[in-house]
């Protein structure tokens, strides 16, 4: 896509020439269209839980909900509200990352300690479905933005639990590799169909929308991981086999 700009050049009120500028705006057009699509998606994703919440609240207000169903209704409102909060949080995170992690300082930190700290709160939801989480780490320093790294590790581990099977397992590994650091999150879950593997890092792309919703997903987790990896010059690799499990590897460069 090209844009043509024409500017007359005048000297002493007399037009002596024409300045023609041909700009290649292909990349800009692509970004503009991605941004429009993202805004439309966000609006749609915000509207769905909000419609449910106001619908449930209205039924309660009108006295249409029998006393014995009140608890369940409150539970549904709570679930939708949590989804909204997660979505708003992820959108804020992505816009920060779009600005290149602006205003956030890189620090030298231990990736293993961070992984242990992030994995800890996930054990409750894992236990409910008899999923075991195993940590295999050694201290390795990386240079990174702590909050972004936390967010990346959390999203990977959270997915490994969410898309796992009853009684499955999750392995979180942090180790030195060459002069850099390697983070691996591996699960024995449902896996990702081959044809979807490239697209799961796109914003709002989900293999099974209703399953993701049910598990409280936003469809933004892996795009945050991808963006975070870019900011840290880290390399991402996904291996997955449907029905068997998924392994995601993030290689951080030497500090
Ligand atoms: P979501 O909030 O839906 O989990 P993500 O961006 O984190 O969004 O992931 C995108 C999609 O990729 C998910 O909806 C799911 O279909 C698939 N996915 C991600 N991680 C895994 C995994 N560990 N096992 C199987 N499928 C996964």
Overview of this protein structure:
- This protein is of the alpha+beta class and 255 residues long.
- The protein has helices at residues 26-61, 70-98, 111-119, 123-128, 146-162, 209-214, 221-231, and strands at residues 2-11, 14-24, 107-110, 132-137, 141-144, 169-177, 180-187, 235-241, 245-252.
- Strand 6 (169-177) and strand 7 (180-187) form a beta hairpin.
- The longest helix is centred in the first third of the chain and has 36 residues, at 26-61.
- The radius of gyration is 24 Å and the shape is globular.
- Adenosine-5'-diphosphate binds at residues 155, 159-160, 163, 187, 189-192, 200, 205-208, 212, 217-223, 246.
- Residues 155, 159-160, 163, 187, 189-192, 200, 205-208, 212, 217-223, 246 line the site of adenosine-5'-diphosphate (ADP).
- This is histidine kinase.
- It is found in: Cell membrane.
- Residues 41-255 form the Histidine kinase domain.
